[in-house]
Amino acid sequence: MNYRFESLREAHSHRPVEVTVPSAQAKVFYAQSVFTPDKMHEYISENILDELFDAIQEQRPLSRDIANSVAIGMKCWAQDLGATHYTHWFQPLTGGTAEKHDTFIDFDRTGKMIDDFSGDELYQQEPDASSFPSGGLRNTFEARGYTAWDPTSPVFVVGDRLCIPSVFVAYTGEALDYKTPLLRSVDKLNKAAVNLCRLFDKTVRSVHANLGWEQEYFLVDEALYNARPDLALTGRTLMGHPSSKSQQLDDHYFGNIPERVIRFMTDLEVEALKLGIPIKTRHNEVAPNQFELAPIFEEVNLASDHNLLLMTVMKKVARRHHFRVLLHEKPFAGINGSGKHCNWSIATDTGINLLAPGKNPYQNLQFVTFLVNVLAAVRRHNGLLKASISSATNAHRLGANEAPPAIISVFLGKQLSEVLDSLEKAPAEKAIIINAKKEVKLGAVTVPEILLDNTDRNRTSPFAFTGNRFEFRAVGSSANCGAPMFALNTAVADQLTAFAAEINALMDKGVAKEKAIFQVLQKTIRYCRPILFEGNGYSEEWKEEAAQRGLDTEVAVPLIIDRYLSQESVALFERTGVLSTKELISRCEVKWANYNGKIQIESRLLGDLARNHIVPAVNRYLNTLLDHAEHKIGVFDETVQTIVDHLHEVMVHVDKMATLRAKANDITSQREQAIAYHDNVLPEMEIVRKHVDELEMIVDDELWTLPKYRELLFIH
Ligand code: ADP
Ligand code: MG
User: Fold this and answer.
1) 296 lines ligand 1 (CB under 6 A)
2) 3-state secondary structure at position 225
């Protein structure tokens, strides 16, 4: 039996699944499964809630009594939705999310079974966390990691459980997750930005970052997926010749969404909306069977939680529709991979987006100040930002002849570039005049009010300004947004602090505030120059030029990870208190180990598939050919020789790959092992694949056992 043909038959039999609830009724079920403030008022008394909200605002713990009351209300609400269990929902460094369910029941002193869920349980859970990666922060024999409630992200119910968004830390307090540093960075950014805002507007009390992610993904029919062990085990195809038709006609992008997919999307939107994820946009992406979905932006910590939650929900909903969702950055060679653009901006509690040109020149000065500071932060920490989005899986996308390149640069667009040019050149005597509320002159410069509609789009830029936000496009589709977001928040917070300090120092020397701002702005613009790039990010010339400009051009992931430990990065994280050196080191250890694990699995599986699928199929075909040759039917010499050559290469390199893998595995340092995997094992994998893909084109289709690209990508 050829499993591929079985799976093809099954795939063709899959029909669109009925969806009962149209997402048009969004308002009805939006946040149905979330413990929103409205519902809190139903289940928790007013004075307790006041205490709770004050405590959140002031970032202090609740008293035990108050925590108990909150827990009881929360439990009742969850039980009314059918929950029987609760779990802290957290984000270990493995990627994805983790949960450990406990029921709401307990025994009382008399041995009677009772309902129980107290403030203590709400606050803290101690999963036996010994198997989570900690990069040496926590020895397995003292597995005391614990999770603690993050009250800034609302609890929600999924299925039979109450999920409590939580941080995950070692017993000694070190972060073992993505959320902890994200929350710390949010706090730092708030303080630094408020401090600078006050130079412009004394009424600002808090500043927060917003994130609007755009999630790209592929859908593959479940039957075909099941016949591809590489998709099942690694999330990507380790072999497969490009389909004759792929994306050359550009007919998929924004095209008509296939019926079975639309049903999936509708179902997904409903599930997401119930969980309070404000889904807004859906469309076909560039590659066949590739799609995108984006919500309305939210506060960065909440948005990041929502993205993680969505990725879980997607997988579940896809199965109802006999699809599998692929979140891997590069499931298929030769066509576009998937990213997760992170649209990032910062806004005040007074409703001002600090990255949008304002309604008056006064706000525009503030806008330019924040904009330039973001540029400076990205310039200073471009290596770190690259590290924050680097992984074994995203490496196939970055710098691999596809958006975006493995060099971080910023695209501003013509209009804004001109604003900065003239600002930089403006003579000092034309310094800004801030005349109470009346007038601001940035030298001779005015900032155009509406940038939004005419920001040019440069799709090759990994970090582009898009009118009222920055779009960090290098983030990978499977990533936890927390990693790039805490790096960016921290870098910007630190830069804002330094900027304000320089202004204050000048003012201490008697320089007028306006003049001081002007001077420091000019200096900062000059400093930003190397990060600004408006040209084609894919070009060879850019790689050379970027190196000359002093930007980070490293492409090997194991070495990019080093950027977390550069002097600049360590100082940044220590100074801001977002991560200690110890935490940074452990994080890198986990990243390298993760890299090694992923490539080890891929390489092993590639060897297995080559030996168990490819070689037997090719041999069968070869026998037929030789049989025909013997009977002098046609002349097959050349084909036979080609097949024999490829087959030989496959076998030789599978063996070589195994030897090199074994050698890499013997290396005890995770970093050195990652370098060995990168330098020695990966190239062998590519060679094996190349020959297998050639063979796929020669061997009789009937004998080929793995679903082909033209099947995986065009059946829906
Ligand atoms: P495009 O594909 O053109 O970049 P989309 O509409 O697909 O745009 O996605 C844009 C994302 O950016 C959405 O999540 C949107 O909510 C978000 N966004 C819009 N304005 C802001 C902002 N000021 N700050 C952060 N995110 C924003
Ligand atoms: Mg988009």
Assistant:
1) yes
2) helix
